[in-house]
Design a protein that fits this description.
Shape: elongated
Number of strands: 4
Largest sheet: 4 strands, antiparallel
Structural class: alpha+beta
Radius of gyration: 20 Å
Number of helices: 5
Length: about 150
């Protein structure tokens, strides 16, 4: 982040708000002409600062309003077991996020489903059968107060 100047930060902020901005509109927003802005965007992509562009979907309109956070404890935390768990967890579409945690449990999952019955199915059929799972604890989200799918610059 230290090697990003004010213009790069403006570009990133504008693209975070709307990744579909044209180079002309982006240039207008940051106060440069289109050629240097296009070069800066390309450089940010090449450096891996911008890793992709995506549509942000409304989960409620897709019929997936139910969010559960799941603490997962593993029987084995040697590298081979962690790799097997990581590979398997990526194949469960209902798992929206997965983080390895330092603390009283091994992983924290964010699981999105239709309702509690659908979540129960995901827990019983998918999460509980992931490799090396010893136990889990579930916390149901009642309301999303702050939910971002992007990094704030």
């Amino acid at each position: 982040m230290d090697d990003l100047d004010a213009i790069d930060r403006k570009i990133l902020s504008a693209l975070t708000e709307n990744a579909r901005l044209s180079i002309v509109d982006l240039a207008r927003r940051v106060g440069l002409s289109k050629t240097p802005v296009a070069a800066r965007v390309k450089a940010l992509e090449e450096r891996g600062v911008i890793v992709g562009y995506r549509a942000i979907l409304d989960p409620e309109k897709l019929g997936l309003p139910h969010v559960a956070y799941v603490e997962v404890r593993l029987l084995d935390t040697r590298q081979k077991a962690l790799t097997e768990f990581n590979e398997a967890v990526r194949r469960v579409p209902e798992i929206e996020e997965c983080y390895m945690i330092a603390g009283g449990f091994d992983y924290l999952l964010k699981v999105r489903s239709r309702d509690i019955a659908d979540y129960r199915r995901v827990l019983g059929e998918e999460i509980s059968s992931l490799p090396h799972v010893s136990s889990s604890s579930t916390y149901i989200a009642m309301e999303a107060v702050v939910e971002q799918s992007y990094v704030t610059i």
